[in-house]
Write a structure and sequence with these properties.
Layout: H1 18-25, H2 37-58
Length: 64
């Protein structure tokens, strides 16, 4: 969180295969799960991190 307690949102740039972008875009927009491509990527990253935390916990590795 930032100094005022607000969530900070740093911008990142990455290269991604076109096939992944096309697949993600099928789930973005009105009547779909995500409001934007960025929302889809953030959600996927959160889910992956949750899964990695579960794996670490099963293997007795501490997490932050």
């Amino acid at each position: 969180m930032g100094p005022s307690g607000a969530l900070t949102m740093p911008k990142i740039s990455l290269d991604m295969p076109a096939e992944l972008v096309e697949d993600l875009r099928k789930h973005v927009g009105d009547e779909h799960k995500f409001v934007s491509l960025a929302d889809a990527v953030r959600t996927a990253c959160r889910k992956l991190l949750d899964q990695l935390d579960e794996i670490d916990a099963r293997h007795g590795r501490g997490g932050d």
